[in-house]
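Hallway conversation turned thread

IA: we were arguing at lunch whether anyone had actually written out Biotin carboxyl carrier protein of acetyl-CoA carboxylase end to end. Turns out nobody had. So, for the record, here is the sequence (142 residues) and right after it the structure tokens. Reply here if something looks off.
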Amino acid sequence: MDSERIKGLIDLLAESDLLELSLTEGDSTIRLFRQAGKVVVTEAQADPSPLPTEQSPTVAIPSVTATEIKASLYGVLHLTPAVGEAPFVVVGDQVEAGQTLAVLEAMKMFHPVKAKTAGQVTAILAHSGAEVEAGQSLFRLG
């Protein structure tokens, strides 16, 4: 399997909610899975092992080290639950999958922005009160 195809599969998994992706072509099998906020690639010939071991011909390569959390819709970003309160998260915080990082206000409704994976907040990419576009990166987790 060529490296461009593997990179495309890694990007597909990183941008989706899937936990694992496996593809077999002829004698080659590639297995991608999420592990602690990273996408891990294992590639094997013929009979793949379920997990890589030291005796296995399988190679594990950490491919994606940062995850970007993007706005699901257009709206006003709020980094705090209410005026004068502490922010949901700050740079350096360790977060769990599903934890609320901020809320987006659209048409007088508040929509939570949640972490898709566990990780550490390495960057907050928009300011509180800013109007953000759907698909705009808001947070980076490492």
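OS: looked through it. Residues 44-64 have pLDDT under 50 and may be disordered.
IA: good, adding that to the notes. Residues 74 and 132 are 6 Å apart (CA to CA).
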